[in-house]
Design brief:
Blueprint lengths: L20 H8 L49 E2 L2 H23 L4 E7 L3 H17 L2 E7 L5 H13 L5 E4 L9 H7 L11 H8 L10 H12 L8 E5 L6 H10 L3 E5 L6 H5 L4 E4 L17 E4 L3 E4 L7 E4 L4 H4 L5 E2 L6 H20 L4
Parallel strand pairs: 1-11, 2-3, 2-4, 5-6, 5-7, 7-8, 8-11
Antiparallel strand pairs: 9-10
This protein binds NADPH dihydro-nicotinamide-adenine-dinucleotide phosphate.
């Protein structure tokens, strides 16, 4: 979350070759046999809004609303509405913050440090600040010029570490190239590492029987979406495409903690398509527009598309549009549920940052 690495560099439009209807039918026909299971007919609304699981606990599933590894057609595919879930999460956080403020007079505080003048980073920081305000979290913002020294940044971190009003500290990435990112991130005390990137947090995430203080925001948001849509994870085959420290790797660890059998696909994987096609759950976090094609997807799979890729689009007033790592037009013909881009994982990332900040404030103040 510290890095919200949407490179605004425009890429050549990969239009995912939306197949003509006939070609698409030909491509998917072998996958859409009549023997395959459809959604259960009694499915209650798949999305369970009254399931507050922001501070994630293990879900209890109602068998009637679990997404099974069922086949879907375009008409039955569920679009996983990240915007809506994120709003629900933010409302729940807001209610908790009010309860805490009324009970012990504490308001959670989040400090954000921005170095340099990257427009995209400034936008992310602005969005985080706005989200904090809406949720009732006090935000503290430090904007430093590009030519600041490492020592200056470390001094701010040290001050925020000591400030009892601040419960979370976030250093917006990327930092200018003259700074040692690792050193700076390590300076954030682990109790306020709401990004969850500290090696101790990641180590605890990886170890059985250990609990990390914080779970990185984007992977946490992915799992929260699966929970809120009652997607069964336990015993399922999951594939995570991408193994970055901030998304792919922690997402794989989280799925494993939820008892999925997890494969990780990366740039050196020789048969990504084959491995992906075995998965009931796919989390794609690559940064390559439309890389995952319809033919990679097992019928009925649930897809969480983390990728945010700008592609040229002359029809769009901005000259580009955002697409995911998964070819949406093809995927909706095969998957049982999918997150759109934009409007899927993106809004969840900020919601989870707020969730981590609240969690931190509660823990520091021993508020249940
Ligand atoms: P990174 O560039 O850090 O990691 C990309 C990963 O994808 C690497 O592990 C890399 O493998 C793997 N990869 C690259 N090419 C291929 C390939 N051809 N086949 C299989 N794997 C490949 O990206 P991030 O994890 O930071 O971000 C991934 C995407 O998610 C981006 O589009 C980013 O914008 C988006 N994002 C969205 C967020 C949100 O809030 N929605 C938040 C964070 C990111 P290897 O390790 O071998 O190099």
């Amino acid at each position: 979350m510290a890095s919200s690495p949407i490179t605004m560099m425009k890429m050549k439009l990969n239009n995912c070759s939306p197949p003509s209807t006939a070609a698409a039918a030909a491509r998917f026909l072998p996958l859409l046999g009549p023997h395959q299971i459809r959604f259960r007919s009694s499915v209650a609304p798949l999305y369970n809004p009254s399931f507050p699981r922001t501070i994630i606990t293990r879900p209890t599933f109602s068998s009637s609303s679990i997404i099974t590894a069922a086949m879907a057609n375009e008409a039955s595919v569920k679009v996983i509405d990240g915007k809506k879930v994120a709003k629900d999460v933010r409302d729940e956080i807001n209610a908790e913050i009010t309860r805490m403020k009324d009970s012990i007079g504490v308001v959670p505080g989040l400090a954000v440090i921005l170095v340099g003048d990257r427009k995209d980073s400034a936008t992310y920081v602005r969005n985080k600040k706005k989200a904090c305000e809406t949720a009732g979290i006090k935000s503290y913002e430090v904007c430093l010029p590009e030519n600041s020294t490492e020592e200056e940044v470390l001094k701010y971190i040290s001050d925020f570490n000591d400030d009892p009003m601040v419960h979370g500290i976030l250093v917006q990435l990327p930092l200018p190239s003259h700074m040692d990112e690792e050193k700076i991130l390590h300076a954030v005390c682990i109790e306020k590492d709401v990004d969850g990137f500290h090696p101790l947090n990641i180590g605890q995430l990886a170890m059985r029987g250990r609990e990390p203080l914080f779970i990185p925001c984007t992977p946490k948001g992915c799992i929260e979406l699966l929970h809120r849509y009652n997607v069964e994870i336990k015993g399922k085959k999951a594939v995570v495409i991408g193994r970055s420290n901030i998304v792919g790797m922690p997402a794989a660890l989280l799925l494993q903690r939820e008892d999925a059998t997890v494969s990780i696909v990366h740039s050196r994987t020789t048969n990504p398509e084959e491995i992906t096609r075995e998965a009931d759950i796919i989390i794609a976090a690559v940064g390559k527009p439309n890389m995952v094609r319809g033919s990679w997807i097992k019928p009925g799979a649930v897809i969480i598309d983390v990728g945010i890729n700008p592609v040229e689009d002359a029809t769009n007033p901005r000259g580009y549009r955002l697409v995911g790592d998964v070819c949406y037009e093809e995927a909706i013909k095969v998957a049982s549920a999918i997150t759109p881009v934009p409007g899927g994982v993106g809004p969840m990332t900020i919601a989870m940052l707020l969730s981590n900040t609240l969690l931190s404030a509660k823990r520091i103040n021993n508020f249940k």
